[in-house]
Design goal:
Blueprint (H helix, E strand, L loop, with lengths): L6 H14 L5 H10 L1 H10 L9 H13 L2 H10 L2 E4 L21 E4 L4 H5 L2 E5 L6 H16 L3 E4 L5 H11 L4 E5 L12 H10 L1 E4 L9 H14 L2 E4 L7 H11 L3 E4 L10 H8 L3 E2 L3 H8 L21 H9 L6 E2 H8 L3 H13 L3 E4 L2 E4 L1 H12 L2
Helix pairs in contact: 1-3, 1-4, 1-5, 2-3, 7-8, 7-13, 10-11, 14-15, 14-16, 15-16
């Protein structure tokens, strides 16, 4: 914004430009940075010298769009739908989007009551395959619910599959979620998620770069992903094939210096192949929300230590455990044989055997000693458990 520009003129200019310039257009972003939104809008609307960086054909297309743009009408339609327009420099603008440089959104259309800037400060993206497996949907719901319960905002794209599961997980936990759409926020897409996106707008936020009524295209889905990556502290990819759009989000997160996080799946699953490729590169492996928060959270937000179950035999003294392990599994043995197996003296072995008998691990059979049924299970689990 130039110093002489009226804020109302700046608002109208940016709304106008969202109808003319495609999301992520770095040439258009450079024009706005160098000349200001008001001047770029004036040149596109009124004609004159062609701005640098585009062909004559593309300039003609932009001018045609400009002639059809009606920013006041777009603002009116948005207002009637409960949608507001947030521009760079506004109090609600998330400053981390500025990391996108000339690909930064010209502004965002926002549907929902909370402050986008405040919510984005503590947010994580959860994305993945549209045609996800039951495992992928389960992991997305569980991760999102766990993040929401820890006070994190879950950001995703509102699509079928992992996206929808992530939104539902956050909502089901009574938490916060943001859907970033590749179309006008007053026209939920996909249509099958109209109810879900409406619920997100009522309990959270629905945002997008495109003006009211605008439709999605394949390129807009791809470019939308950079907003998801820039808005959040990290991107978690739950399930993704090699050519999945969610990998675009992950790579954008990497370029922006955000955390790139992957949830492992079965080695035989094609829908996890893209995630595993990320994990082989620079992504961090996680298995639950606590792992994610340890990465993206503040100092001290640590995941618990991961340990297997404590077995009763783990509570024995080391010497007693060695004697117990030295007993044959299915027959009685003399004390001297057990002592050799435990690599200790016969006297020490006998003392340990009486201790183990008192605890129910062994029983006396004449001159020999044998494992009880309880001990056989314990020793088997200790030797072969996984």
């Amino acid at each position: 914004m130039n110093g002489d520009d009226d804020p109302a003129d700046e608002l109208l200019a940016r709304v106008f430009l969202t109808r003319v310039i495609e999301p992520g257009d770095e040439v258009g972003g450079r024009w706005v940075r160098e000349l200001g939104a008001v001047e770029v809008a004036r040149v596109l609307r009124e004609g004159g010298a062609q701005l640098a960086g585009v062909t004559d054909k593309r300039w003609a297309g932009l001018r045609a769009r400009a002639q059809a743009a009606e920013p006041r009408r777009d603002l009116g339609v948005a207002r009637d739908a409960g949608v507001r327009f947030v521009s760079p420099g506004d109090a609600e603008w998330p400053g981390q989007l500025d990391d996108l440089g000339d690909a930064r959104p010209l502004g965002l259309w926002v549907r929902g009551r909370p402050s986008l800037r405040i919510w984005a400060l503590r947010s994580v993206a959860v994305v993945g395959a549209r045609a996800c497996t039951e495992y992928g949907a389960h992991m997305a719901v569980t991760l999102a619910a766990g993040l929401a319960e820890r006070g994190w905002v879950v950001v995703s794209g509102g699509a079928y599959g992992v996206d929808g599961a992530a939104h539902r997980g956050a909502l089901g936990a009574g938490g916060a979620t943001v859907a970033v759409l590749a179309c006008g926020v007053d026209r939920p897409y996909p249509r099958g998620h109209t109810e879900l996106i409406t619920r997100i707008a009522e309990q959270g936020l629905v945002i997008g770069e495109l003006p009211p009524g605008d439709h999605p295209t394949p390129s807009r889905f791809v470019l939308r992903n950079r907003v998801i990556a820039a808005l959040t502290r990290g991107t978690v990819v739950v399930e993704a094939a090699y050519r999945s759009g969610s990998l675009v989000t992950a790579r954008a997160a990497q370029r922006l210096g955000r955390f790139t996080i992957g949830v492992p799946g079965p080695a035989t699953s094609g829908l996890s192949a893209g995630v595993h490729q990320l994990l082989r590169a620079d992504a961090v492996l996680v298995t639950d929300a606590a792992d994610v928060v340890e990465l993206v959270g503040d100092m001290g937000e640590l995941a618990p230590d991961r340990r297997g179950p404590v077995l009763p035999r783990d509570l024995l003294e080391p010497g007693a455990r060695r004697v117990l392990a030295a007993l044959p599994a299915r027959r009685a043995a003399a004390a001297d044989e057990i002592a050799r197996g435990a690599q200790t003296t016969q006297d020490d072995t006998i003392a340990r055997l009486y201790e183990l008998r008192a605890l129910g691990y062994v029983e006396r059979h004449g001159d020999g000693w044998k494992l009880t049924r309880q001990a056989m299970i314990s020793v088997r689990d200790g030797r072969h458990g996984c």
